[in-house]
Specification:
Maf protein; seven-stranded mixed β-sheet; 24% strand; alpha/beta; 34% helix
Length: 205
């Protein structure tokens, strides 16, 4: 098979993430991309807000990959769940997953996704937030869900696109943001930068 060579302006996007959900979104949009996993410390800083956390991590991930790939566009994102003063990242074990679910069940919480698109010193970053309302759950129901294994690598211990959809009352904001990539705002940014014209042949507005 002949390897396709792209000019520098239309070379495939580098996705600085191994998230299957983010890969699925780019595939569904037909955007050419390759995956490179960034290696950064994701430990929250003291008194750091959920919005500041996801923005800092998204920018950090993009910067690490962009540094080694000059001239290439790099996309990175990070997602967290917040309720009251709690920031809920990925659970560390089964009990932590159950704890998170019992904390957010029957109430509203926020999902924040920080996104960064970078090429060299050209950096575009933003945070998008959606509100998710979960129906009330018993602890037995939460443990049943955790036993499926689905929550164990998800911020907030649930996957809105999976089994957890059974527990969601409604979402206010972007469903894509809840899944980990705010494609509506990202698509608008890519079109503004002329990237969709190069990658997809989409005419400029």
């Amino acid at each position: 098979m002949t390897k396709i060579e792209f000019p520098i302006s239309t070379r495939p996007l580098i996705l600085a993430s191994t998230s299957p959900r983010r890969k699925q979104w780019l595939e569904s949009l037909s955007i050419p991309f390759e995956v490179l996993a960034p290696d950064i410390d994701e430990t929250p800083e003291a008194e750091e807000s959920p919005e500041d956390l996801v923005l800092r991590l998204a920018k950090g991930k993009a910067a690490v990959i962009a540094m080694d790939h000059p001239g290439r566009w790099v996309l990175a994102a990070d997602t967290t769940v917040a309720v009251d003063h709690h920031t809920l990242n990925k659970p560390v074990d089964v009990e932590d997953a159950v704890r998170m679910l019992m904390l957010i069940q029957g109430r509203r919480h926020e999902v924040h996704t920080g996104t960064c698109l970078q090429r060299d010193a050209d950096i575009h970053a933003f945070v998008d937030t959606a509100e998710v309302f979960l129906r009330p759950l018993t602890e037995a129901q939460a443990r049943w869900y955790v036993a499926t294994g689905e929550p164990m690598d998800k911020a907030g211990s649930y996957a809105a696109q999976g089994i957890a959809a059974l527990f969601i009352e409604r979402i206010e904001g972007s469903f894509a943001t809840v899944m980990g990539l705010p494609v509506e705002r990202l698509g608008a940014l890519m079109q503004e930068l002329g990237l969709l014209e190069g990658w997809l042949g989409l005419p400029k507005a």
